[in-house]
Design brief:
With 372 residues, the chain is of the alpha/beta class. 53% of the residues lie in helices and 7% in strands. It has 2 domains: 203 residues, Rossmann fold (3-Layer(aba) Sandwich), CATH 3.40.50.300; 122 residues. Helix 8 crosses helix 9 and helix 13 runs antiparallel to helix 15. 34% of the residues are buried.
Length: 372
């Protein structure tokens, strides 16, 4: 099943070698960008070291042990992740959550992870891994394996551990039982205690290449080449994001981007005022982020227009690309500046700057470059 994980050959090679040589570390840190397969790899690794198959290809995915891991029901598997709590009521050492609303969200997150792990999940309150979750883990870690060769504990987004939780977890890391494998995942390794980092075997995960994402989308999601190229470019190496884009589609945001560019080309300031008024509130943040991602693709397409037409994503809009290119053919001079500017706008949006101010700033900047 490891072959299902795309673009992480180095990480998979490290783990397969550990299995083949029977040199399983007691603690691992899987670190790298979001959406590149860290959790899935951790799950498959736990499956592989407990797989019942006599064949070399493990995990098999079909033996009783593998099936239990895939349904998160294996008695020797524990999944720890950040979730909310209600006042002083947190998870018990037995894993019981008494607040019904929190329990529902907790169980929904796990169900989402089992059935559609690429889907975004939003909790209603601030989340974190608190000391109560670590105490639950410590309570479980004392027990002998029930069915498997190893007990497997995956701690997702380990950087969300509070200082109390991190210090408590450090004690577990110092003397883990020999029948236990702890796997931490994070996109922010520098946010972890140095003492935690030093006690884990670190396994790096890389952004997934655009070509791999394109191929995956074309072969398994049956997308046309133009759609696969577009989603792969917007995803920026994040396979999870690419799959989310496929599921919800970006037709609306692409049409909005085209409308914006038509307004820009016409230099119709009155129409732009109406357009900008759609983005007055923070509720439009994610939509505007998608539009900016599309604009980044458009600027790249303009840069490819003359010499690298095969790299163009918006092949059905070459007339608009040509118009913008001829407005300012000095692409080598302005493209890097625009791309840097648009990336900055994405960061400002993430920092909760008013979306309307962002789109006005983008319109003014592009007007200056193409029509100034």
């Amino acid at each position: 099943m490891f072959e299902k994980i795309k673009g992480q050959e180095k990480a998979i090679s490290i783990l397969k070698n550990a299995i083949e040589t029977d040199k399983i570390a007691h603690s691992y840190l899987f670190y790298g960008p979001d959406g590149v397969g860290k959790f899935t790899t951790a799950l498959y690794f736990g499956m592989a070291i407990n797989c019942h198959s006599t064949l070399e290809k493990r995990p098999c995915g079909i033996c009783p042990s593998c099936k239990k891991f895939l349904s998160f029901s294996h008695p020797d598997f524990l999944f720890v992740f950040p979730f909310p709590k209600e006042k002083d009521k947190d998870i018990s050492i037995e894993g019981e959550i008494k607040v019904e609303k929190i329990l529902q969200e907790y169980e929904s997150y796990i169900e989402n992870k089992i059935k559609t792990p690429w889907k975004e999940f939003h909790f209603t309150k601030n989340i974190g891994i608190r000391i109560a979750s670590i105490r639950m883990l410590e309570n479980r870690i004392k027990l002998s394996p029930n069915e498997g060769n190893y007990k497997v504990y995956i701690i997702e987004n380990a950087e969300t551990m509070g200082i109390q939780a991190a210090n408590a977890f450090l004690k577990t890391l110092e003397e883990p039982p020999t029948d236990t494998v702890l796997i931490l995942t994070t996109s922010k390794p520098n946010s972890l205690l140095p003492t935690i980092l030093s006690r884990c075997q670190q396994v790096p995960f890389l952004p997934v290449s655009r070509k791999i994402i394109e191929k995956e989308l074309e072969e398994n999601k049956f997308l046309e080449n133009i759609e696969a190229k577009m989603f792969a470019r917007i995803a920026h190496g994040n396979m999870e994001k690419a799959l989310q884009l496929v599921e919800k589609g970006t037709t609306a945001s692409r049409e909005e981007t085209i409308e914006f560019l038509n307004i820009l080309i016409a230099q119709d300031d009155l129409r732009f005022i109406d357009f900008a008024n759609r983005y007055k509130t923070s509720k439009t943040q994610s939509q505007l982020m998608e539009i900016i991602s599309h604009l980044i693709i458009w600027i790249s397409d303009i840069s490819y227009f003359k010499n690298f037409p095969s790299e163009i994503v918006n092949l059905d809009k070459t007339d608009m690309l040509e118009t913008l290119y001829h407005q300012n053919p000095n692409i080598d001079e302005y493209a890097p500046k625009i791309l840097e500017f648009l990336e900055l706008m994405l960061k400002k949006l993430a920092g909760h700057v008013n979306p309307q101010l962002i789109i006005i700033g983008i319109y003014n900047k592009l007007s200056e470059i193409f029509f100034g």
